Amino acid sequence: MKHLSISLSSQKGLVRPHNEDMLLVCTETYRDAEAQREVDITETSSVIMAVADGMGGHNAGEVASEDAARELGNHISVMSRVLSQRELREELEQWIQDEHTYLTEQGEENPAQQGMGTTLVAVLCYRERFYAINCGDSRLYLMHDGSLRQLSRDHSLYAVTHRESDRHIITNCLGGGGDESFIDYDDITDELQPGDRLLLCSDGLTDMVSDEDLEQLLADPQTMAADFINAAYQAGGEDNVSVIVITAT
Q1: Which tens digit of pLDDT belongs to each residue from 114-138?
Q2: d(CA 242, CA 38)
Q3: Where are the alpha helices (DSSP H) in 33-84?
């Protein structure tokens, strides 16, 4: 793949008073906004695309998601372009630990931000290879040959118990008061073919729209991020909704 067409939108839901999600493409962050980006891929490319879904009272969730997205973009932008695959993974795992520690300490020092945290799901294109990164229950999907498949694994209690009462209890995030944080990290290069589409989204989409409906939406090459926002709204829009659609060619 030599080119990425990126459609993104992050919007306040129909019920929540404000938007605690944040999107990242390269070093640009987005909230309550939509945009289209075109990115060329080269041998020295380092392109990050991410969704962060914040949590915490007193608007602290929006602080956590903004900090995580901004700092990840800044980190990737100055990261060495000659890392081996092992070194790249170690670099990202160290960043996750550092950001988790920072958000945890900020929550402990400021009562208004106590317990603040954020999920993070991302796709990194580094030296023409693609990597999936996940911490929490925001999701990454791959649309290939007319079929939708979830690439990320939900870090939630529901994923273990399948009890509806556990659906929104996450077991891993950045900050949030936990002792530690971890990432799922996978090289997905060989799973991608020209024309495939990737969908990054917060649970404000997946709680409202079924995988079957997501598949139908992604099957249309003209579908943009705003179309997914509208689908979530039509189903009730109970949470903030943030979406990045990536078409690789």
Answers
A1: 889 999 999 999 999 999 999 999 9
A2: 19
A3: 60-78
